Each structure stands twice: as C-alpha cells, then as structure tokens.
Amino acid sequence: MRTWTMVMVLGLVACTGLGTKAGSDAASSASNGAFAGEWAACHGETPPDQCSRYVLLQRGNRICGTWFHFATGKEYSGRIVAHVDASTQARRTHVCGRKSVETNTECDDGWQRIDKPLRICDGKLSDSTRADGSCFAYYQSVPLADDAHDALLAEPWMQACLSGEP
Fold first, then answer.
1. Cβ neighbours, 10 Å, residue 45
2. CB 71 within 8 A of CB 33
3. 3-class secondary-structure state, position 132
4. Torsion of CA 8, 14, 20, 21, to 10 degrees
5. Alpha-carbon distance 89 to 83, whole Å?
6. What is the pTM of this model?
7. Omega of the bond leading into 48 within 30 degrees of 0 (cis)
8. pLDDT tens sequence across 63-100
C-alpha cells in the first residue's frame, strides 16, 4: 500500500506541472543520467492517474525507481533496479511489487531477479524490444516535481538501492 501511495503521489504531483529538480546539492547526484526522471505513457483517452509510468533515479551506472501500470481496472506498482550498459541502454536486473506480469514477488518479500531491457530511443523510454530487436519506446519524459523527487530519494529502500543493494 505504501508503494502505491508513493506512486500515486508522484503521478499526481507530476500532472500538476510543478517545477523540476535542478539543484546542485547531494540529492541531485541521483538526478543525473539519461534515465533519471519521470516517464509516462498515456494511451488515447487515458486519465492521467492511470497512465503507465516509471520514476527513475540514477547514480552512475545504477538506476533505481518505481513503476506503475493500470490494467483490467486494477493498479499495479512496484520498484525496479537496473544497470546502465551504454549511454542509452540498460538492463533491469531486479523487480518487486504487486503480483502481475511485471513480477511475482511482493516488495516486502524481497526482489525478483530479471533480465529485461530499458532503453532510450529518440528521447523516449522503452521497456520492451520488438521481435527484430528494434526499440519500441512510448514513455515520454515528463517533469518530476522537486518534492516528489526528494520524497523518493528519502525512502530507505531507495538509499540502499542507490548505494548498491541488491
């Protein structure tokens, strides 16, 4: 429930269009990198609170963040860990959250190991690859409010993740 609340807060704050993180303090070290920020995919007439999204913080080659999807009238959310392989390519290595097609491990129970792509193509984020290996990017970058960034960065699991755990 706590994860869902955080995802909803981040999503709703982003929809308000409040400012983006631009400071040069220690917290901004997790804001650097091509993958850092909020990414949203809103298909058709999707209400903003039902758009799929990732909120990612990046420190060096380490990416930690949250994911949210709405499907079949239900909300699914969780956390991800990824490792940058190249400037626009990363591999998701760990995931947890509400049981769905994304994961079968609740965050309270630990992390599920995975090996899935995360790429940036033409300025958009992709979490899947077409059968021919080409990028299928549909997540658009959206402003991440300072308070949403700071709240995520303050989470104990995020501090551990950015420090290399798992």
1. 6
2. no
3. coil
4. 10
5. 9
6. 0.80
7. no
8. 999 999 998 889 999 999 999 999 999 999 999 999 98
